[in-house]
Design goal:
Chain lengths: 775, 327
């Protein structure tokens, strides 16, 4: 309960009487069915204007006075030892201000000790050997050519399966396969899988492959650094301000409070910017060495070599079911390519463990190191990879059993979480199925986009579906401050980041709702460790459910203080006052209304500071759910697949901004479409190098590839999850898309493609086999 | 990008002189291929000879019943030209399916014919044979998008696939190119412009040293003629062809009087399928077996380790082309 206290303050020998305010309380749950003024209303991005006019400043745009440009010399070999390094010629080049390498840079450990900032042993083509700061980028690049390096090349391995075999060239001395408690791989078992298969009437068993997918954020990774005395400012395109701050402070051995990290706008991350690359540390070291600010932005080639990826997988999956469709056993073994310095394998087994009710499940996941760029989280890491085989096999089971795919899924609906053996806070997957089916039926036949004269008879239509499970519940810690200024403006201070998802808008809606102001009155200040309290990384679809409750709590605190102050001036108990559309009103007396500005200015240049925090999570598992249906048209002569329509319905709790949600679903579907049909990193195994680290040969879908997308949400508050009832929506939509498309391709052609992406090469090969069998 | 000097040529003659005068000088027209190659330092000109303001400028004009397309004409102009669309449909289709609107606005027809391969080894850091090295890395490497024809070691050291869309269309339309060289003006069938690379001439064209293309000539439209260009891409837009077919026919009654077939994206150079043309020529339309013709089209295909799919893909495109032009 906030209280107004009159107190005397002494400043420079003079005494003033001041009005001060103390503290607040926790907000009650926004129950399902509650009427809202802001939450749940479609809102345009609050920073849309800045973004489209170019006013928004991205890391790429940062240009402190006197800034130098940096460029990195990278190892061209997949595995090599540095024999000698001579940077003297580079240093002599006019315009070059500093050259750093292992010869003169501090010895800074990286990759959990498995590597270094500048290592003597280099474990993938693209690893850092030296960095140059110069007056301009051309000079910096020219200088790289003047550095002479002698390498001793070492045996290497880039093929996932080869790397996992005994006797393979070792990426690290401790072996290529990740160990857990001394054992290779990560094991999970429930029930008795062998018994489960014995009781099965039908069994599907196959090996599936998924590609290495590259994030290809529009803005590449990069950082700028500037020192002022012993204080360092880092501008970095990051999903995790505090992660960068911690890594930079630890690497440079400076106190946390001396490092400020800024990322007010960023051009996408998709998981690749949750990690801290070497870039901010390199720029900070160069800035220190030169006494000038330094910027290092990666180019697209570097971006696609070393900033992370969704690791390729080989998955051997066996599933069995009874005649009535009851799943009896799932057995999955996963090889996951972590690249050179991977320290965790993607949670590829997640869907097998959780998506369907099944007593007998066994999974084994082997994280494998190879001489390639290290993987990183990529929008629902693991679950995208794991959903394709599981949902393909389920589709095959349905066909063998002659069962409707939705009926099958409903029959095997998991009422509770079988891994933790507890209820979910909320699960509305059945509604997702029904709503998706309804949308699909309402929409009628999908339209072909092929020009009439190019529409021969061998275009085959098919429909497929897939389901989705993912976390996305968020949690503490997250903190926020809501300021009500004496001019009546509202500012939210929170060092979270909007990585392009639109959370700034959704969170502003939460604050506007709780405060009782209009959305346009709220200014959300984020992306700066010095301008707001701690917020977690923007990954795992956690920003809305973590930061949302914190900003609401801060807004509630601010509102309570406002009403307490107003109570004094209205001479009415605070409980009889309300805030609506930015005005304080005595309940039932519209004529009494006074603007926030009027009220606060009564007490001079006062600023209400509402403090908020994110409370603890419930003990039950928090999940998001969804179902997607894809309609495709397959050209059996050319092997080209055209996705005509994707229907997507997801259960992400209460929807804060329907417009923002749609945008996330569209983006997820398109990225999933790329994963399903066009995107794959290609590696020359003889040379150990990536051949398509660019946007020409790594094919992301174009707008011309975009299908009609019909999206929606169940939109029921998960009131057990947190007091705003919302969960994250960033990752769920990418999870089932590729699987739904693959099932639709099967429906169209009768051919199962076991490897993504389903390119003309793979589909024509599969069709050839079908045709040979037929004839 | 390396440093270079820059000069403008007001006429083809000036361009030729500028090329001859400076070792390492290179023509700059639309720049859509050259600039990326310079940025990657694959091509490092000492001098850029800018021809974008030379006379004759871009333009399409009638000549001898056919068309003269000046070298600077952008692909977008060809794609939208009424006469090209009517009488030389394959070329309009090809220009429409190439690249993106931005690239089609900048890229010129002359430059398009002279563009470099998109092979990822050539475009990458590898010292491939085309760049003066010893080895074709694609032959036993990542070759999914590479050549299935004219790729035997004794035939071509390079196994890349030619990227041009207009080139096969122009081959099927029996185009000629004219240009200027130190020895004076030249004129040749387009088919003669393309040639497999050799150690002495590590390029895909026979363009005379220090020569420039000034125009492309299309013959007068023949009675009963029609043409089209079909292209298979790995996505719906902005991609080079996995395979492409340009087909030109002249039909009189039930008889195929003339047929020309040119293929793109399946060999180091665009090329004519003379044997199948011969099979078609003089045949009765009603008696044609499209499946058989398609099989004949790929009879000589010799796929590499990863691109076997291109043969059925090409057959599919060709059958479709026949179906669309001949019913």
């Amino acid at each position: 309960m906030a209280r107004i206290v009159k107190t005397k303050i002494e400043v420079e020998g003079r005494v003033y009487e001041e009005t001060v305010v103390v503290d607040g309380e926790e907000p009650p749950v926004w129950e399902e069915g509650r009427e809202f003024t802001q939450v749940g209303k479609p809102a345009n991005r609050v920073d849309g204007r800045e973004r489209v006019t170019g006013a928004a400043k991205y890391t790429y745009d940062v240009q402190p006075a006197g800034m130098l440009y940096a460029a990195v010399l990278r190892c061209p070999h997949p595995h090599a030892r540095l024999v000698s390094l001579d940077t003297s010629e580079a240093e002599k080049l006019p315009g070059v201000r500093a050259v750093l390498s292992k010869e003169n840079a501090p010895d800074i450990g990286w990759y959990g000790g498995a590597g270094k900032l500048f290592d003597e042993e280099l474990r993938f083509a693209g690893e850092e050997v030296a960095v140059v700061a110069a007056d301009d980028l051309d000079t910096a690049r020219d200088a790289l050519k003047l550095i002479t390096v002698e390498y001793e090349t070492l045996p290497f391995v880039t093929d996932l399966e080869a790397a996992a075999r005994p006797g393979a060239p070792q990426v690290h001395p401790q072996g290529n396969v990740l160990k857990n408690d001394g054992e290779e791989g990560e094991l999970y078992t429930r029930g008795d899988v062998d018994k489960g298969f014995k009781s099965a009437d039908v069994v599907v068993e196959a090996t599936y492959r998924t590609p290495t997918a590259l994030h290809n954020s529009f803005e590449t990774h990069g950082a700028a650094a500037a020192w002022e005395g012993d204080e360092l400012t880092i501008w970095e395109s990051t999903q995790y301000l505090f992660g960068v701050r911690g890594r930079v402070a630890t690497s440079l051995k400076v106190p946390l409070s001396k490092v400020r990290v800024i990322s007010e706008f960023m051009g996408g991350g998709f998981g690749s910017k949750g990690q801290t690359l070497k870039t901010p540390v390199l720029t900070a070291l160069l800035a220190k060495a030169t006494g000038r600010p330094v910027k290092l932005m990666l180019n697209r080639h570097e971006e696609n070599l070393l900033t992370g990826n969704r690791g390729e997988t080989v998955q051997r999956l066996k599933i069995g079911a009874k005649k009535d469709g009851t799943l009896t056993a799932i057995d999955l073994e996963v090889l996951y390519n972590m690249g050179a310095y991977g320290m965790w394998a993607g949670a590829v087994a997640g869907p097998a463990k959780e998506l369907y009710s099944c007593r007998n499940v066994r999974t084994k996941t082997l994280g494998v190191r190879t001489n390639l760029g290290t993987h990183a989280a990529f929008r629902a890491p693991g679950f995208v990879e794991g959903t394709f085989p599981l949902e393909s096999a389920v589709d095959d089971l349905c066909r063998q059993l002659n069962m409707d795919p939705v009926e099958f899924r409903k029959k095997n609906h998991a009422e509770k979480d079988q891994v933790s053996d507890s209820e979910y806070t909320a699960k509305n997957l059945l509604q997702c199925y029904d709503m998706a089916l309804e949308k699909h039926a309402e929409a009628g036949r999908a339209l072909s986009t092929a020009p009439v004269r190019y529409r021969p008879s061998n275009l085959k239509r098919g429909t497929g579906m897939a389901s989705q499970v993912w976390s996305g519940g968020g949690g503490p810690p997250a903190h926020a401050i809501v300021r009500l200024n004496s001019d009546g403006t509202v500012e939210v201070m929170c060092a979270t980041q909007d990585i392009g998802t639109g959370v700034k808008t959704a969170l502003s809606q939460v604050v506007a709702e709780e405060l009782g102001v209009l959305l346009e009155q709220v200014r959300f200040r984020l992306g700066d460790t010095q301008k707001g309290p701690f917020a977690p990384a923007s990954w795992g679809s956690i920003t809305v459910p973590s930061v949302g409750p914190a900003v609401r709590s801060a807004a509630q605190d601010a509102r309570r203080q406002l009403l307490d102050i107003a109570s004094y001036f209205f001479e009415t108990p605070a409980g009889k006052l309300e805030v609506k559309e930015g005005f304080v009103t005595i309940e039932g007396r519209e004529e009494s209304r006074r603007s926030i500005e009027e009220i606060i200015s009564e007490i001079g240049d006062y600023m209400i500071l509402g403090k908020g925090f994110r409370g603890p999570n419930p003990t039950e598992p928090l999940r998001t759910w969804g179902a997607q249906i894809a309609d495709v048209e397959v050209d059996e002569e050319t092997g080209q697949v055209r996705v005509l329509r994707v229907v997507a319905v997801h259960d992400v709790g209460r929807v804060l901004n329907p417009k923002g949600l749609s945008s996330q679903l569209y983006g997820g579907i398109l990225q999933g479409l790329g994963y399903g049909l066009t995107e794959e990193r290609r590696v020359d195994e003889h040379l150990g190098v990536v051949v398509n680290a660019n946007l020409e040969d790594y094919k992301i879908p174009t707008m011309a590839d975009a299908p009609q997308m019909l999206v929606g949400a169940v939109n029921l508050a998960d009131t057990a999850a947190n007091h705003i009832g919302s969960k994250g929506a960033g990752e769920p939509p990418i999870i089932p898309t590729a699987a739904a498309i693959a099932n639709a391709v099967y429906d169209a052609t009768g051919v199962r493609v076991y490897e993504l992406p389903i390119t003309p090469a793979r589909l024509l090969e599969a069709l050839k086999n079908r045709n040979q069998t037929e004839s | 990008m390396n440093n270079f000097s820059y000069t403008k040529a007001g006429t083809p003659g000036e361009a030729v002189s500028a090329l001859a005068a400076t070792e390492g000088a290179v023509i700059l027209a639309g720049g859509t291929d050259l600039v990326p190659l310079m940025k990657e330092e694959i091509v490092n000109p000492s001098t850029l000879v800018d021809i974008t303001t030379w006379e004759p400028r871009a333009g399409i004009e009638s000549q001898g019943g056919g068309l003269l397309i000046h070298a600077l004409t952008p692909l977008s102009a060809l794609a939208s030209n009424e006469r090209v669309g009517r009488d030389y449909r394959a070329l309009a289709d090809a220009c429409n399916l190439a690249a993106t609107p931005q690239l089609r606005n900048m890229g010129t027809i002359g430059g398009n014919l002279l563009q470099q391969t998109r092979c990822w080894y050539y475009r990458g850091d590898q010292p491939c044979r085309l760049k003066g090295g010893e080895v074709c890395f694609a032959r036993n490497g990542e070759n999914e998008k590479h050549a299935i024809f004219l790729n035997a070691p004794g035939t071509s050291f390079c196994v890349s696939a030619h990227p041009s869309d207009p080139a096969p269309a122009l081959l099927a339309l029996n185009a000629r190119v004219e240009g200027e060289a130190p020895g004076g003006p030249f004129d040749m069938a387009l088919e003669e412009l393309f040639a497999l690379p050799t150690d002495e001439r590590r390029s895909f064209t026979t363009l005379p040293a220090n020569g420039v293309i000034t125009g492309v000539l299309l013959p007068a439209p023949q009675p009963g003629s029609r043409s089209l260009y079909l292209k298979a891409m790995p996505r719906a837009a902005w991609a080079f062809a996995l395979a492409s077919v340009a087909l030109y026919v002249e039909v009189e009654g039930d008889t195929v009087k003339e047929a020309r077939i040119a293929l793109g994206g399946v060999a180091p150079i665009p090329f004519r399928a003379h044997r199948v043309e011969h099979d078609l020529r003089g045949s009765r339309v009603s008696g044609l077996d499209y499946r058989e013709l398609a099989e004949a089209l790929t009879a000589d295909a010799s796929p590499l380790s990863q691109n076997g799919y291109k043969a059925p893909l090409l057959r599919g495109l060709f059958r479709r082309a026949l179906l669309q032009l001949l019913g």
